[in-house]
Amino acid sequence: MIKIQQFRYSADNLAYLAYAGKEAMAIDGGAVQAILSFLEQNGLHLKYATNTHSHPDHTTGTSTLARKTGAELLDHRELARAGVVRIGGEPMEVFATPGHTADSVSFYTGDSLISGDTLFNGTVGNCFSGDLESFYHSIKRILSLPDETEVYAGHDYVSDSIAFARQVEPDNPHYEEYLKKYTPYHVRSTLADERKVNPFLRFNAPSIVALLEKKGLAAATELQRWNSTMTL
Q: What is the mean pLDDT of residues 177-186?
């Protein structure tokens, strides 16, 4: 089984180690010293270092980790094309999730999803690629995963995200339960949690559809509802 360890760096960035047996892979490894300490303390060998996308706040540290440990730098786009990477003999699925950027990818262990800046806890990333339709398909791909999947995102935006969600859907009864599970020391949620509170995953919810129609935004098709929700 592949385990996930989260590391915080800068103001709100989140780095990850995925490890099994004695092998590990760093994903968006900006927390260099903390990652090196964890590797040493747990007798782990860093085999690979890679990223969820090419924004510099995520790639910082990747080359440094590779240089200090001898880890192989893996191109995240090539990983997505291959579809899988093995850590300690265990498979980890890698699939393209374009939208935030054209080169965004996500990593799935069967239990956990490392989603970079595609899906945050409580919101989604900005569509810097300008390709909302690809972003829609990426979100649909993520939503096809089991409800119990734990979401590990690229940043901790939880407080601001839920504050915004309250503005969009003030009568949603699930915010307090969601926030009770939140801790800045281990930022995660399940897809079931996200379906309840994340307005950008709730574009088919009657309350969101009613809001879009009230604002005069297109809501006839699912893609239109997604596009319109992204303008809220």
A: 98
SS3 content of the chain, % helix, strand, coil (to 5): 35, 25, 40
User: Residue 186: what pLDDT?
Assistant: 98
Q: Tell me the C-alpha distance between 55 and 123, whole Å.
A: 19
- What the block records as the tokens of 138 is 């990426």
Characterise 99 by phi-psi region: left (phi > 0), alpha (psi -120 to 50), beta (else): left
Question: Both tokens of residue 176?
Answer: 């307090």
d(CA 121, CA 195): 11
Residue 28: closest CA among 81, 82, 100, 88:
100
In angstroms, rounded to a whole number, what is the distance separating the alpha carbons of residues 136 and 124? 11
Q: How far apart are CA 166 and CA 173, in angstroms?
A: 10
Whole-number Å distance between alpha carbons of 196 and 214: 22
Render pLDDT for 67-81 as a digit per residue (tens, 0 to 9): 999 999 999 999 999
- Estimate to the nearest angstrom the gap between the alpha carbon of 221 and the chain centroid: 26
> CB neighbours (10 Å) of residue 211?
18
44, two tokens: 């782990």
| E-strand stretches of the chain | 3-9, 13-20, 23-27, 45-50, 72-73, 84-87, 90-96, 105-108, 112-116, 150-153, 189-190
Note if the pTM is more than 0.90. yes
pLDDT digits (tens, 9 = 90+) for 1-41: 999 999 999 999 999 999 999 999 999 999 999 999 999 99
- The DSSP letter of residue 149 is P
Considering Cα of 166, then 167, then 168, then 172, what sign does the dihedral take? Answer: positive
